[in-house]
């Protein structure tokens, strides 16, 4: 218990720590740091695609546990601020962190997954396998942390590979992508002062596109709705393209056909699921209800809803900013409860170095 209490105290101040560390290193009176972290550029392959990332490796004599980062939709780069807290806090606990550029981004080629979650999950599996071959890393203690879309990718990867020892799913909607995006877009419009009539038009537009993707509507009707909506000031909050793609090749069709509950219920390794109670992007209440329905068959799953936290586990961001697309990719978690729960769970799983 004293170990966990110490971890909670250690992690509570990490939300803004990376910038403080960088500043202190340039000061003439700086003292040597207790935690020594080596950063290494490394690549790995999945099929014919080579992906590139950075390993943040704590200096330890014995092999350590490791976490592979699965990306949120809006933060495909390893350098995204969303992942900074992991790179700082986890090596201090003796856990390596590997963050890579999602395929089609940064130094991981130019071809995206096109909405293929299975391909993204297989990329994460390949990253885990590459770490397992490193003698400094304990091959039995390598898992995945993912937020939002990454919270879908982690469980899907664990359901497809025995190489993954644990899963941490943060702000992961346990509903299909079309249900999640309607919830998100509605809240975006409400937060930015749009009218009920505008919300109704947005809903009808999304429904027309989704009906076509599911085979119950026409492409022409969906495109007509998009054409009427794309000039509206609220259209940017829908994250929809201006052209309805053929459903035979549409990445969106593949996304909405994926049921994250099915993937999650197939996971047998220890799993931590964390939500922000004030998340305006994910229907947390519905997700919690669906998780409760499978709780009996998943004894290794632990679920928490964190008071005051938003989709990115931030407490201090105004909602009109957090729900403005121009700020996508700038999120930085600062919920102390989130950080404390994360550290405590990692310790109880035997992943923290003594």
In short:
The chain has helices at residues 2-11, 17-24, 84-92, 117-132, 149-160, 177-191, 196-213, 219-229, 251-256, 260-265, 284-294, 319-322, 336-348; strands at 37-46, 49-58, 64-70, 95-100, 137-147, 167-170, 271-276, 301-306.
Q: Could you walk me through the main structural features you see in this protein, from its secondary elements to its overall organization?
A:
This protein has 2 domains: 2-7 and 36-176 and 259-348, 3-Layer(aba) Sandwich (Rossmann fold); 178-254, no CATH class. Residues 1-24 have low confidence and may be disordered. Helix content is 39%, strand content 17%. It has helices at residues 2-11, 17-24, 84-92, 117-132, 149-160, 177-191, 196-213, 219-229, 251-256, 260-265, 284-294, 319-322, 336-348, and strands at 37-46, 49-58, 64-70, 95-100, 137-147, 167-170, 271-276, 301-306. With 354 residues, the chain is α/β, with parallel strands linked by helices. The longest helix is centred in the middle third of the chain and has 18 residues, at 196-213. The chain has an 8-stranded mixed β-sheet, sandwiched between helices.
Itemize the secondary structure elements and their pairings.
Layout: H1 2-11, H2 17-24, E1 37-46, E2 49-58, E3 64-70, H3 84-92, E4 95-100, H4 117-132, E5 137-147, H5 149-160, E6 167-170, H6 177-191, H7 196-213, H8 219-229, H9 251-256, H10 260-265, E7 271-276, H11 284-294, E8 301-306, H12 319-322, H13 336-348
Parallel strand pairs: 3-4, 3-5, 5-6, 6-7, 7-8
Antiparallel strand pairs: 1-2, 2-4
Helix pairs in contact: 1-13, 4-5, 6-7, 7-8
